[in-house]
Design brief:
Oligomer: single chain
Strand order of the largest sheet: 8-7-9-6-12-13-14-15-16-17
CATH topology of the largest domain: UDP-N-acetylmuramoyl-L-alanine:D-glutamate ligase
CATH class of the largest domain: Alpha Beta
Radius of gyration: 22 Å
Distance between the termini: 55 Å
Shape: globular
Helix content: 25-40%
Number of strands: 23
Number of helices: 15
């Protein structure tokens, strides 16, 4: 079968392309922006890429067109698909019909931590010899790829609440029909498609409705927003996770043994069940680990096996990833783009580096950030850093200077060059520079690295 994918260079759609190729299909695709690392990964798989959208990309006519959710009516290629009467479907629907339908699906949903938790879960199952398939929104360093088919028994999927396609406005995750579902957390996000938190909760409840009675839901004990979702109706056993020693209801608990979360004791139903010692930081990652361990246990992996596997977990690219260390100055790349993720990432790093100076550099790039929904909480989210820089491009929908008024440690810069110049002058040995964006941030990481090397 010839499958053509619109929006192929997104992590999700690129993952579908890789799996379709592994299944023996002839795969082509188009995207407005064709650039590494996804373009390189796809070309290495022998997948033909077309830059830009054009009706000519559909010649010869494919057997099926898979449409990414970034594609809107008016796009010349989708207009040609419709006018020619070509068969088309959404990415999530294709994933279910061709990959997930006959597997044990383990889905990881939530506002934060989906990619990391999915990667942890896949690694635990892999370490237990279960050879899972997976599709995650990043590149787990233990695997080096964002997607694979596996042996057809278990499949781990990052379950995104974003909408499915221009013709299907349900959240992606309602298509996946998981047997095991992790609900990591829930806050307001994606303001471009959801009017309020209640609208997101309704979508999460649609997911809950699809989980069978002999399945499992895993959720944090203290997230009231998720508790409200489950109160809407739940027909599946629920296991709660916690870091609180006094908890009486949580099945899974962790006791953090080091300030940075680099070592913790696991408890299952009150019994010590293994110790994890790893390179990750922060309470949020310990909670992610609890969810992954609980999900793996549902699939038959003992807590002790899971704890041992996580001790060799290498994290995900762009999750506080060390890019370089130059004259004692450490540069990190991080995907955080929501105030909660920004705060927890910086708090975890603070616990690891103690009093060393942290400089956070933030690009407000997500649709929600650009709309200014979180403008009032940006300064607070950066408090764990000694100094912070917010990049304000000309087309940002709010005034960052006004938003940070009174925050003496936060600076606003209106060009990448000014940020590079500022860091090159100010950074000193022992500093930790954290670049935070859900995009490429204009290649600023390399520009700063080059400037520091020049001295």
């Amino acid at each position: 079968m010839h499958i053509h994918i619109l929006g192929i260079c997104g992590t999700f759609m690129g993952g579908l392309a890789i799996m379709a190729k592994q299944m023996g299909h002839h795969v082509t695709g188009s995207d407005q922006n064709v650039y590494p690392p996804m373009s390189t990964q796809l070309e290495e798989q022998g997948i033909a890429l077309m830059k830009g959208y054009s009706p000519a990309n559909l010649d010869p006519a494919p057997d099926l067109v898979v449409v990414g959710n970034a594609i809107s009516r008016g796009n010349p290629e989708i207009e040609a698909v419709l006018n020619r009467g070509l068969a088309y479907t959404s990415g999530p629907q294709w994933l279910y019909c061709y990959v997930l339908k006959n597997t044990w699906v383990l889905a990881v949903a939530g506002t934060h931590g989906k990619t990391t938790t999915s990667s942890m879960l896949a690694w635990i199952l892999e370490s237990a010899g279960l050879k899972p398939g997976f599709l995650v929104g990043g590149v787990p360093l233990n695997f080096g790829v964002s997607a694979r088919l596996g042996d057809g028994r278990f499949f781990v999927v990052e379950a995104d609440e974003y909408d499915t396609a221009f013709f299907d406005k349900r959240s992606k995750f309602v298509h996946y029909r998981p047997r095991t579902a992790i609900l990591n957390n829930l806050e307001f996000d994606h303001a471009d498609i959801f009017p309020d938190l209640a609208a997101i909760q309704r979508q999460f409840h649609h997911l809950v409705r699809s989980i069978p009675g002999n399945g499992l839901v895993i959720a944090p004990e203290t997230d009231e927003t998720l508790t409200e979702v489950l109160r809407m109706g739940c027909w599946t056993p629920v296991e709660k996770t916690t870091l609180e020693e006094t908890s009486e209801n949580a099945v899974w608990r962790a006791e953090i043994l080091t300030p940075d979360g680099g070592r913790f004791q696991l408890f299952h139903r009150g019994q010590p069940s293994g110790i994890v010692e790893w390179g990750l930081t922060g309470r949020h990652n310990v909670m992610n680990a609890l969810s992954a361990i609980a999900a793996a246990h549902h699939a038959g992996v003992s807590p002790e096996e899971a704890a041992a596997a996580l001790s060799s977990f290498k994290n995900v690219k762009r999750r506080l990833e060390v890019l370089a260390c130059i004259d004692g100055i450490t540069l990190y790349d991080d995907f955080a783009h929501h105030p909660t993720a920004i705060a927890t990432t910086l708090q975890g790093l603070r616990a690891r580096v103690n009093s060393a100076r942290i400089i956070a550099v933030l690009e407000p790039r997500s649709n929600t950030m650009r709309m200014g929904v979180h403008a009032d909480t940006i300064a607070d989210s950066l408090k764990a850093a000694d100094k912070s820089i917010i990049f304000q491009p000309d087309d940002l929908g709010w005034d960052a200077e006004q938003a940070i008024k009174g925050a003496e440690s936060v600076t606003v810069c209106r060009s990448l060059d000014s940020i590079v110049e500022l860091l090159a002058k100010d950074a000193r040995p022992g500093d930790h520079l954290v670049f935070m964006s859900n995009g490429s941030f204009g290649g600023i990481h390399k520009k700063v690295e080059d400037a520091l090397r020049r001295g």
